[in-house]
UniProtKB/TrEMBL annotation:
One Pfam family from the record: OprD
PANTHER family: CHITOPORIN (PTHR34596:SF2)
Keywords, sorted A to Z: Signal, Transport
Identification of the protein by name: Outer membrane porin, OprD family
Gene Ontology terms, MF aspect: porin activity
InterPro entries noted in UniProt: OM_porin_bac (IPR005318), Porin_dom_sf (IPR023614)
Organism: Pseudomonas putida (Arthrobacter siderocapsulatus)
Family named by the database record: Belongs to the outer membrane porin (Opr) (TC 1.B.25) family.
Signal peptide positions (record): 1-26
Spans traversing the lipid bilayer: none
Length: 425
């Protein structure tokens, strides 16, 4: 695996040198940028009830370097994006690993002192169409490189975007490997199977997707994307984002529909799920109040790629995903931007989710429930030498009726982040 990765990087650099020798470098250098993000992350899960481990608790320091070139001059422009990732252990113990901040030995449960990764992506551009080949960080409803830990999840493959058609952004790609958030090894792309939802270990050599975002008006965007994890599942996504002025504020609608079914050899077994959800929010004078509902139809849970989170209405929750078979989830969320009260940079959030009608016979029954109370407070320094230094603290109180074998166990969870991004050039 390491030899293949090294060869890929050497090949990429060799191709770039050959291309640059034939192209003007002005825009390649002028439009380049580089940033270094330092991320200090503390995660503490205090499990409730019977559990093999009483807690998952670790503290780590991460560094994320992103250096992106511009494009060479000419009809076809070429460039290179470089990503460097480094994670360092600050505190861990074999009896409390498993936070996904740090990789660890599955036998001894000892966390590694550090881990790192270098990612390269060659890119080309014609007009407003761009093609990138190499390390990718897609952010789409059907495939999302999770940023929810110390270092982001990444994929290896090809990704094309195009804005050549007015009001339409086209997305198309093929991913062939994934690097998990606490790993440096690229591996086949697997289906997440918490709570034994699907056959364990099912993976594929190919994840394809294509679709687009159409900006019907400045206030209405329609999204349609098709995806396929070869021989495991296919998924069609339809989304609507709409905003409109209402009284003293704005009303926002976010509707997401996923239709998923097994594909080809069905390595993970049957996949039969229709996920329908809607979030409706009203924002005024620093306040945002939202109410949402999501329901799982079909015989199975919602399928998504292992190592991350589903981009459904429960995204952002910390202890569970709320997409079990037959589950019905409602939520209420309140955000406040303290800039409206004269404290710019300070924001807060409260959210409550409740899921019922959960069908998990192996874990306790056919009408189980789960709930989560989430709190968040964040502050970004606005001026002075430390401008941009960001502090974020989150608390979650998660409870369910599932048995001790459940992937998601009742817990109280705390996450503390201190992030700072330095612009190198």
């Amino acid at each position: 695996m390491c030899n293949k990765s090294f060869s890929f990087r050497l090949t990429s650099l060799g191709m770039l040198v050959a291309l640059l020798s034939q192209s003007a470098l002005a825009d390649f250098v002028k439009d380049s940028s580089a940033t270094l993000t330092t991320r200090n992350f503390y995660l503490d899960r205090d499990y409730k009830g019977d559990s093999p481990y009483s807690a998952a608790r670790e503290w780590a320091q991460g560094f994320i370097l992103k250096a992106n070139s511009g494009f060479t001059e000419g009809t076809v422009g070429f460039g290179l994006d470089v990503t460097g990732l480094l994670g360092i252990k600050l505190d861990s113990s074999p009896d409390r690993t498993g936070t996904q901040l740090l990789s660890f030995n599955p036998i001894t449960r000892e966390a590694r002192d550090d881990y790192s990764e270098l990612g390269l992506a060659l890119k080309s551009k014609i007009s407003k169409t761009k093609l990138s080949v190499g390390t990718q960080f897609p952010a789409l409803p059907v495939i999302n490189a999770s940023p929810a830990r110390l270092l982001p999840q990444s994929f290896r493959g090809a990704y094309l975007t195009s804005d050549d058609i007015e009001k339409l952004t086209i997305h198309a790609g093929r991913m062939v490997r994934v690097n998990l958030r606490d790993s440096t090894d690229y591996q086949p792309i697997a289906l997440a199977s918490p709570n034994g939802r699907f056959k364990p270990g099912a993976s594929s050599e190919r994840f394809d997707f294509y679709g687009g975002d159409y900006r019907w008006t400045d206030s209405l965007t329609l999204r349609l994307i098709h995806a396929e994890l070869q021989d495991i599942y296919t998924q069609d996504f339809f989304g609507v984002l709409h905003t409109m002025p209402l009284g003293m504020g704005k009303f926002r609608s976010d509707i997401r529909v996923f239709n998923s079914r097994d594909d080809g050899q069905a390595k993970a077994g049957k996949v039969d799920n229709l996920n329908v959800g809607g979030m409706f929010s009203y924002a005024w004078s620093g306040h945002t109040l939202g109410i949402g509902y999501m329901q799982q139809f079909g015989d199975t849970a919602f399928p998504y790629i292992a190592g991350g989170e589903p981009v459904v209405l429960s995204d952002g929750t910390m202890s569970a995903d709320f997409v079990n078979p037959k589950e019905r989830t409602w939520l209420v969320k309140y955000d406040y931007d303290f800039a409206a009260a004269g404290f710019p940079g300070l924001t807060g959030m409260m959210r409550y989710l409740h899921g019922n009608n959960i069908n998990l016979p192996a874990l306790g029954g056919n009408d189980l429930t789960e709930s989560s109370k989430d709190l968040e407070l964040a502050y970004v320094i606005q001026s002075g030498p430390a401008k941009g230094l960001a502090f974020r603290i989150r608390e979650a109180f998660y409870r369910n009726q599932q048995g001790v074998a459940s992937t998601f166990r009742s817990d109280n969870e705390t996450r503390v982040n201190v992030d700072y991004t330095i612009k190198i050039w």
